[in-house]
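Why Histone-lysine N-methyltransferase ASHH1? Reviewers of the renewal asked for a concrete example.
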Amino acid sequence: MLHSDEDKSNVVQLPDGVTPFIHISQNEFLGQKHKKLKEDDIAICECKYDASDPESACVERCLNVITNTECTPGYCQCGATCRNQRFQKCEYAKTKLFRTEGRGWGLLADENIKAGQFIIEYCGEVISSEEAKKRSQSYEAHGLKDAYIISLDANHFIDATWKGSFARFINHSCSPNCETRKWTVLGETRVGIFAKQDISIGMELAYNYNFEWYGGATVQCLCGAANCSIFLGAKSQGFQEYNHVWEDGDVRYTVEEVPLYDSAEDDSLPVISGISGGNEQTKILNDSEGSTLKLEPSNTTCKSFNIGSGSTPKKKAQRLPKRKVKSSSRKQVNDGDFAKLFTSKEAREEVTMYEGLKNEATSKLNSIYEEIRPTIEEHGRDNQDSVPTSVAETWIEAHCSKYKADFDLYFSVVKNVMYPRPATYTTAAGPSEGGAGPQTTNAEPMLSVGGAK
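Here is what the prediction returned.
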């Protein structure tokens, strides 16, 4: 077995069966100059060395530690005792390379590791997003299934496929014991692997790749966690849009497995066993009614490319236009039929008005989505940053208008059901004899459901 902390040189002795690579202990920049830290930009903490407690130099309370910034040698008052230079000094935890069962090579803890402890830096070649795309396509074309590319920032990636540290061997898990964190070291952004929890010696290290799927072959996840997503990238928007995940209670189906109905009275076709899901529910993206847009910032440094076994994507499932999908055995009332439930003219007019406003808001929302779709897709492919503020504000405003229209309509329906309109009085002609005065009839509004009274 090979210990990753034994040799920091470019040449290392690898066990039989490991694909050769060049070992490096810090990133190499391809096609760009090494960023030099200006003296005015150096972050200087206020820590002071305490001879009675040498282990307290630049730890949890250090301002630089709090901001994920390493201290710069020569500018820290703690001098050589500074404990906030772990990336620069390669202060890695002891780890061991080993062969897993069915998942290639992995990395395990060769000592007890505490929660929050720095384990190892993810090193490799720092390349642009354009170069990362080219490389991923080249790796796929040459049948390379395992590519070690993760996101560094909006415009750069780290490729550890041919040059990298032993962090490249850490496998994915949907229930990981490690996580990636970005740190600023001498003015540069670097990625480290940190323990999420206490890890005992002999335990395999794993972190969530937060895999982004952009097409091509789907790769099954083999982590074995209880909340496993079944496929790498199954929770990414691209994967869900392509596979049209549909839910019915606790069962999930792909578009090929959705139970189909010829009419509301027919029984469904035999249901194929669905894909078992994890703890987190999957968003449904329905192309015919306007797709759901997720506008949320990323909270991870990791973003991997899908390198499948072939370059030709599978044929996309086709919808069957003349069949209906019934997600519930209960009969539903369409929004446009709400007004027909009431016999009161005033109630019908009010509900009809709100139905019109709801339809207008829905139409506007769909129209705006088509306008901003190119911007959304462009950001989704290229980086993990949120979409431009103007685009997000437009989308949020349209959504709020749609929610308000929905609320107004449903509130009107509930109000008219729970509190019927005041009684309407009409004057009828009295009998011709007896001189009786006018009579009144109480036209009490009725809620007509299933037939007239």
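The domain at 2-124+160-207 is CATH 2.170.270.10 (Beta-clip-like). This is the kind of structural detail the renewal will allow us to pursue systematically.
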